[in-house]
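Morning F.,

Quick status update on the modeling queue. The single chain you submitted on Monday has been processed. Sequence for confirmation:
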Amino acid sequence: MELLDVSRSIVVVVDLQGKLMEMIERPAMVTAATIRLLKLAELFEVPVVLTEQYPRGLGGTRLEVRDAFDALTTPKRFMEKTSFGCCGDPGFEKLLHDLRPALDPSRRQIVMAGIEAHVCVMQTVLELIRHGSQVHLCWECVSGRGAEYRCHALERMAKAGAVLTNHESVAFEWARDKNHPQFRAMSALLKDGQPTG
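Structure tokens below.
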């Protein structure tokens, strides 16, 4: 698996929504790390997709995450869905294409965050891999209801070919060099406390 290339990356944030967020393992860590991932996407001008699973029933995206998404000036798309995996919605592929129109799907590098690890995230990851995309899964941005669900879902996705990573590794791979114009801003953001809880 290759290092992340900023020109081939898309961040996908799956279903960090109201009722579900109250039930997952380590919600504060997932929220804080995902917000930092979104801020890093802004720094490096990486496009972002945010999805919601049946928001009328589950509620909208957690407010702090939605605010960070809405503040982005990098290209972004929002999608409501009823299919558990994002790839089950015919509009998802169009969103990815719109964000990286010149990029062959087999060259895409999808950086994933979201819930639940064993349902919507896993179905999305497995389908993306099956269709040829590389998937880099930020473990601290992914969770589910209970440590076992999260742990075994991460294991299964890794065995299927997903790269287990974290938002800091993503940032350093996007930068590649301390002389990158965004390195200082990136360093300041990463020093601003580690997501916990």
